[in-house]
Write a structure and sequence with these properties.
Largest sheet: 3 strands, antiparallel
Structural class: mainly beta
Shape: globular
Strand order of the largest sheet: 1-2-3
Length: 43
């Protein structure tokens, strides 16, 4: 299952393509992310 990188929620919508991969937008926090992206938002 696809989850938001920031809040780990499953409420998202498709927002287009980036580098040939599907891009998503989290409905709760507004974070854009790509499935399988290995970057994290840890500080």
């Amino acid at each position: 299952m696809i989850k938001c990188k920031k809040w780990r929620r499953e409420k998202y919508v498709k927002t287009g393509n980036a580098s040939g991969k599907q891009r998503y937008l989290c409905k709760e926090c507004g974070c854009n992310f790509i499935e399988g992206d290995k970057r994290t938002n840890e500080k």
